[in-house]
Amino acid sequence: MLLRHAKSSWDEPGLDDHDRPLAPRGVRAVERIATYMEERRLHADLVLCSSARRARQTLAGLRPDLDDVDVDIEDELYGASAYALVQRLRRVDASVVSVMIIGHNPGLEDLAVALARDGDPSAMERLHTKFPTTALAIFDVDQDDWTRLGNGDGYLRELVLPRELS
Question: What is the pTM of this model?
Answer without folding.
Answer: 0.95
